[in-house]
Specification:
The protein is α/β, with parallel strands linked by helices and about 325 residues long. Helix content is about 30%, strand content about 15%. The chain is globular and about 70 Å long. It binds adenosine-5'-triphosphate and magnesium ion.
Length: about 325
């Protein structure tokens, strides 16, 4: 997914080539039914853009998204005609709900938009959905402003689940919430996934969020997936220097951990003019000759089950520089 930049008259006159933001750039992966996959990376790396392409909110510049083998169409009418395919929930539960609708009205609306559902059935289904996201029937008549952030996010989840989607993309569903509330919403997602067999793509800034919910994690950097593998493998044995740095940035994983990985230096380069070679090279403490010339693809490590792979010329060549001596306590 490349976003073209508006060209100035000067660049048109001087015939400079049109530039674009390469928000998602050559990404290829599969999510199995019932799987829960984390997508992690710092701000601006393309996570939301990828999530929007997957549910058909953006039409990608090239390539294709398929669900159940069928191409996802970036067309509102078709999406509404077939909402069961994929739903997305966003970071900010404050802006994604209509302030003039009660919780019950908001959920009923989601039920009605997509189904011709009889009123008594809709009422029953609405109560079931509120139960499912553990909202008491007392809040059914409350307005969004009367709810806490966590409650609002539960309403968004209930609305997304109203159509029984096969895939739920949750775009940073907890980053706007208080730390104490984050765990309860994450646990809810983990339970829903188990109970409903939901397929989940969970987008987050750091590994701590995806760790308890996701079987597999993909780490994204400047539009590319630079490491992917079973979540625990990626955390215990990160191969890409960027993943290593991301892991050192999690304060909660700090106790008992010896880390020699450098913290991330500086900001990511512009996704408009990427450096030649590996796109992480300006910030990488290990970069040498080849890293400035050749962009590495994902290289898989040995092991069973889901492949653990990293896009670094030095992946699997030396022991990882980060070690975690004890797992952090789970919530
Ligand atoms: N509609 C758009 N038009 C032009 N550029 C865009 C558009 N949407 C996103 N971008 C650019 O694409 C890149 C990726 O943005 P995106 O929102 O996908 O990142 P993100 O990983 O979700 O970040 P965050 O963690 O802050 O939500 C950024 O450089 C952003 O400026
Ligand atoms: Mg985002």
């Amino acid at each position: 997914m490349h976003f073209p930049l508006r060209r100035s008259s000067l660049s048109i006159v001087r015939r400079r080539p049109a530039e674009s933001v390469r928000a998602v750039d050559g990404v290829n992966f599969t999510i199995e039914r019932g799987e829960s996959v984390g997508l992690v990376g710092e701000s601006g790396c393309g996570k939301s853009t990828l999530g929007r392409c997957i549910v058909g909110l953006y039409k990608s510049t090239a390539g294709e998204v398929r669900l159940n083998g069928l191409p996802v169409v970036a067309n509102k009418r078709q999406r509404n005609a077939n909402p069961r395919v994929a739903q997305i929930i966003f970071q900010d539960p404050y802006s994604s709900l209509n302030p003039r609708m009660t919780v019950r009205q908001a959920v009923l609306e989601a039920l009605h938009v997509h189904h011709a559902i009889a009123r008594p059935d809709a009422e029953r289904r609405c109560s079931e959905l509120l139960d499912l996201v553990r909202l008491s029937s007392r809040v059914a008549h409350a307005y969004p402003r009367q709810l806490s952030g966590g409650q609002r996010q539960r309403v968004s989840i209930a609305r997304a689940l109203a159509v029984e989607p096969e895939l739920l993309v949750a775009d940073e569903p907890v980053s706007a919430l208080d730390v104490s509330v984050q765990a309860t919403v994450l646990n809810l997602l983990a339970d829903l996934r188990k109970d409903l067999g939901l397929t989940l793509l969970l987008i987050a800034h750091n590994m701590a969020v995806v760790r308890h919910v996701c079987d597999r994690t993909m780490v994204m950097y400047l539009g590319r997936i630079i490491e992917t593998g079973p979540t625990e493998r990626v955390i215990a044995d990160p191969q890409h220097p960027y993943t290593q740095a991301l892991l050192t940035a999690i304060p909660r994983l700090e106790p008992g951990r010896r880390s020699t990985a450098p913290a991330l230096l500086g900001d990511p380069p512009s996704p408009i003019r990427l450096p030649p070679g590996c796109r992480f090279n300006p910030r990488c403490s290990r970069a040498e000759g080849i890293c400035y010339e050749i962009e590495p693809g994902l290289i898989g490590g040995a092991g069973e089950g889901t492949v653990h792979a990293a896009a670094c010329h030095f992946a699997w060549t030396t022991p990882s520089t980060v070690s975690i001596s004890e797992p952090p306590s789970s919530q």
